[in-house]
Fold this sequence. Notes:
With 57 residues, the protein is mainly α. It contains 3 helices and no strands. 77% of the residues lie in helices and 0% in strands.
Amino acid sequence: MSQDANIDDVQEPINSAPPEVRRIIERVWKEEKGRLDKKTNTHINENILKIIKEEVR
Length: 57
């Protein structure tokens, strides 16, 4: 199996998700990326919960 096929398999659930779910995934990803870029060891559970609540409204 090629590398491209593996990436497509992993991304397929995201690509086929409804727009609301994709927004949640993107916002959580950005939050986590920012946390990792800053090399902080803080928990982001509350931030993720806030993102989900905002998107559900």
